[in-house]
């Protein structure tokens, strides 16, 4: 198995006890990341025997999990067989037509040769529509719900804005449930084919446990709740700017500031699952008051709310026009073309952000630092050269030389997409051998009923951060 394929695989020793299921999971993960592949290529990549590959793939095809493409013409021997008759090359066929030669019945050896050509050339891939998953983002400004197939191509989606003052738990849970019904109905998916719901919580001040408890009482779908930065990190590692690396930091800037630290392809979470609070590292001793209560936090200098407040102060209390926080922040960036005050505020934020990123370089020695979040993408599009300049001045020379700094590639869908990878990963590792659960005749029945038979998990398995696949989801 190649190093890249190994990085993409789950830890089968700890997640799958039955060797048959271990082989199955290994094949599914390999197909997911590298399809289309022939059986021979699967043998080489997984290290499984040809017999095991043939047996397991046969079962997966019979169950509709894997599909087999037609053999390429170039892989069929020149002597093709039609209805048991060997048809030779064009010259022989012409001679037969003129009575000079005859076309005979195919020999057993010829038939075996053609069959072998078909087996060798047939390429295998997962069937995207075999199952579906739902990804949800709970952010400060919106609740986004997307329904995806196994290839993580979005089939339906809905966004519910969260105006200021409407961010209580009841409202958010209501938006999630309404969104689930909407995307299931829009996609018109087969009964019982939803694997689960991944939820990435980007909103500041939210704790995953109350949200999980509230949702589990009203939905029968399996729930997987995670930090929004970790969800975005998975999406970027699988499909975006983190593809092909094992050590990265995904820096997320919105109203708050956080980071997903990825080492050896897995997220670092800390002893109590709270690692990544990069926004609450100190960049100015005794500095500005942060909303966490401390002074001098990075978030107090580069978070969207902090930057907008600095601009308001620079304009002696005048507010920046905008329908919501995102449009207001965009207006600030646009004002920098003509406003020296706006330019000064952005320059200051870029310097502090560069210093914060330099700390990441020195602490974690990543191959890539990926800047994302709605404010991070807007800010980075304009100020990335200045940010890089500051990082170069502040970071240690050797680790900085091995680090690239860029923007997330998946845009506003990254958190919901990353959340959806959790039930996909569980399916590839554990659930592929199980039949569909709880067939639902209507979207509402899919959402209301007995809670799942397996407790929801807030911690996805190590394998979910593996090397990225080659497919790109449709936003």
Protein architecture, described:
This protein is of the alpha/beta class and 475 residues long. 44% of the residues lie in helices and 15% in strands. Strands 7-6-5-8-9 form a five-stranded mixed β-sheet, with helices on both faces. A hairpin with a 2-residue loop joins strand 2 and strand 3. Helix 4 packs across helix 5 and helix 12 crosses helix 13. It is globular. The relative contact order is 0.14. The N terminus and C terminus are likely disordered.
Helix content, binned percent: 40-55%
Tell me what portion of residues adopts beta-strand conformation: 15-25%
Strand order of the largest sheet: 7-6-5-8-9
Rg for CA atoms = 27 Å
Structural category is alpha/beta
Major sheet attributes: 5 strands, mixed
* CA-CA gap between termini: 32 Å
Unreliable stretches: 1-18, 72-118, 435-475
What is the helix tally? Answer: 18
Number of strands: 14
- Globally, the shape reads globular
Q: Averaged pLDDT, please? A: 80
Features:
475 residues; alpha/beta; 5-stranded mixed sheet; 18 helices; 15% strand; disordered N terminus; disordered C terminus
SSE diagram, text form:
Blueprint: H1 3-8, H2 12-15, H3 19-34, H4 39-46, H5 50-63, E1 66-68, E2 80-82, E3 85-87, H6 90-97, H7 108-121, E4 124-126, E5 132-138, E6 142-149, E7 154-161, H8 169-187, E8 194-201, H9 208-216, E9 223-227, H10 228-239, E10 248-253, E11 257-263, E12 266-267, H11 299-302, H12 304-314, H13 325-335, H14 340-364, E13 368-372, H15 374-394, H16 397-401, E14 404-407, H17 414-431, H18 443-447
Parallel strand pairs: 5-8, 8-9, 10-13, 13-14
Antiparallel strand pairs: 1-4, 2-3, 5-6, 6-7, 10-11, 11-12
Helix pairs in contact: 3-5, 3-17, 4-5, 10-17, 12-13, 12-14, 13-15, 14-15
């Amino acid at each position: 198995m190649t190093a890249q394929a190994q990085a993409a695989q789950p830890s089968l020793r700890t997640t799958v006890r039955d060797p048959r299921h271990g082989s199955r999971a290994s094949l599914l993960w390999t197909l997911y990341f590298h399809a289309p592949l022939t059986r021979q290529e699967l043998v080489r990549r997984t290290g499984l025997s040809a017999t095991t590959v043939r047996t397991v793939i046969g079962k997966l095809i019979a169950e509709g999990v894997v599909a087999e493409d037609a053999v390429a013409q170039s892989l069929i021997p020149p002597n093709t067989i039609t209805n048991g008759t060997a048809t030779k090359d064009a010259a022989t066929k012409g001679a037969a037509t003129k009575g000079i030669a005859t076309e005979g019945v195919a020999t057993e050896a010829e038939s075996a040769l053609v069959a072998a050509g078909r087996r060798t050339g047939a390429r295998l891939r997962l069937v995207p529509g075999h199952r579906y998953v739902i990804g949800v983002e709970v952010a400060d400004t919106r609740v986004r719900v997307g329904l995806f197939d196994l290839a993580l191509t979005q089939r339906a989606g809905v966004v519910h804005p969260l105006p200021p003052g409407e961010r209580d738990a009841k409202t958010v849970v209501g938006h999630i449930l309404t969104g689930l019904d909407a995307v299931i109905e829009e996609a018109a998916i087969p009964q019982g084919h939803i694997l689960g719901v991944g939820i990435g919580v980007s909103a500041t001040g939210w704790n995953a446990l109350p949200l999980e408890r509230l949702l589990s009482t009203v939905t029968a779908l399996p729930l997987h709740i995670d930090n929004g930065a970790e969800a975005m990190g998975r999406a970027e590692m699988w499909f975006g700017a983190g593809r092909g690396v094992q050590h990265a930091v995904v820096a997320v800037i919105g109203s708050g500031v956080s980071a997903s630290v990825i080492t050896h392809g897995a997220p670092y979470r800390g002893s109590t699952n709270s690692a990544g609070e990069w926004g609450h590292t100190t960049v100015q001793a005794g500095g500005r008051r942060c909303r966490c209560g401390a002074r001098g936090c990075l978030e107090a200098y580069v978070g969207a709310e902090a930057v907008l407040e600095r601009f308001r102060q620079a304009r002696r209390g005048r507010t920046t026009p905008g329908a919501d926080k995102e449009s207001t922040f965009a207006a600030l960036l646009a004002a920098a073309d003509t406003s020296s005050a706006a330019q000064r505020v952005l320059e200051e934020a870029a310097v502090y952000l560069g210093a914060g990123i330099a700390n990441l370089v020195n602490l974690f020695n990543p191959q890539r630092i990926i800047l994302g979040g709605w404010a991070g993408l807007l800010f980075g599009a304009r100020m990335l050269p200045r940010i890089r300049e500051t990082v170069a001045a502040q970071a240690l020379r050797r680790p900085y030389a091995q680090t690239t700094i860029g923007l997330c590639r998946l845009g506003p869908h990254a958190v919901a997409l990353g959340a959806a990878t959790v039930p996909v990963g569980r399916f590839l590792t554990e659930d592929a051998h199980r039949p569909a659960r709880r067939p639902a005749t209507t979207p509402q029945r899919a959402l209301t009923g007995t809670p799942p038979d397996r407790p929801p998990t807030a911690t996805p398995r190590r394998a979910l951060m593996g090397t990225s696949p080659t497919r790109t989801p449709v936003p």
